[in-house]
C-alpha cells in the first residue's frame, strides 16, 4: 500500500509541473516573437483600415539588435517561408529602425503601441503591418 501511495504521489508531482510559463507576455518589450495579424494599405483618400491577414509572417527581435524573420521585413509583400536574418537599431524605448542592406529595399520603422508592434513602410499613403506578441525571449 505504501509503495502504491509513493508511486501515485510521484506521478502527481511529475504531472503537476509545467514546462511552459503561464506568465503574461511583456507587451512593453520589443524583444520576443511577433506574428502578423493585420495590414493597412490606404487607397489615398484616408479611408484605409486595418484588415486581418493570416499569411504567417513572424518576426523575432533580440536585445543585441539582431532579428530573425520568415520573410524579408525590408520588402513590402515579400514571400513567406524563407528564414531571413537582419539587424535593427533601437531609436527609443519603444521604437526601432530596420537596417536594410541595400537602397532598393524599403526602410521601415517599428513602434510598440498598445501592446502591438507596428511596422511603418515608406508609402505615399500609409502602409502598416501590425503584429501581436506570441512569445517573450527566455534567458
Automatic annotation (TrEMBL):
Superkingdom: Bacteria
User: Under what name is this protein listed?
Assistant: Lipocalin-like domain-containing protein
